[in-house]
């Protein structure tokens, strides 16, 4: 049931294949975390302003947060984080410029989480 959130700099809007990256993230979660494909949920949020280091004009930012139920090993979570770093460049266009990337895989309180399909 990974719940994946990808925050990205507004500047990447025209050079970031978000759908392709989202599908890749879901496939990685299935492969590395034994997640069910239909339970993978990935959303993207464009951020208007990010400050990386001392120079806001140099770096764009992509921050990936993966929330999973407890029970995955530390090695599996680390493998997912590394795999995300490896595949991301393939979804950034040539004019993306330098991109600072952060990946965080963390456990979610499964007792407080609910999910449903509403409507039709």
From TrEMBL:
It comes from Kitasatospora saccharophila. This is 5-carboxymethyl-2-hydroxymuconate isomerase. InterPro entries: 5-COMe_2-OHmuconate_Isoase, Tautomerase/MIF_sf.
């Amino acid at each position: 049931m990974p719940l994946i959130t990808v925050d990205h700099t507004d500047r990447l809007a025209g050079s970031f294949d978000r759908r392709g990256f989202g599908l890749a993230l879901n496939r990685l979660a299935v492969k590395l975390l034994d997640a069910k494909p239909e339970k993978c949920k990935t959303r993207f949020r464009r951020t208007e302003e990010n400050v990386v280091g001392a120079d806001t004009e140099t770096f764009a930012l992509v921050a990936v947060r993966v929330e999973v139920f407890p029970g995955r090993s530390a090695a599996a979570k680390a493998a997912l984080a590394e795999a995300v770093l490896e595949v991301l460049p393939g979804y950034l266009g040539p004019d993306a410029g330098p991109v600072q990337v952060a990946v965080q895989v963390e456990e979610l309180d499964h007792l407080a989480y609910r999910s449903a399909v509403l409507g039709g």
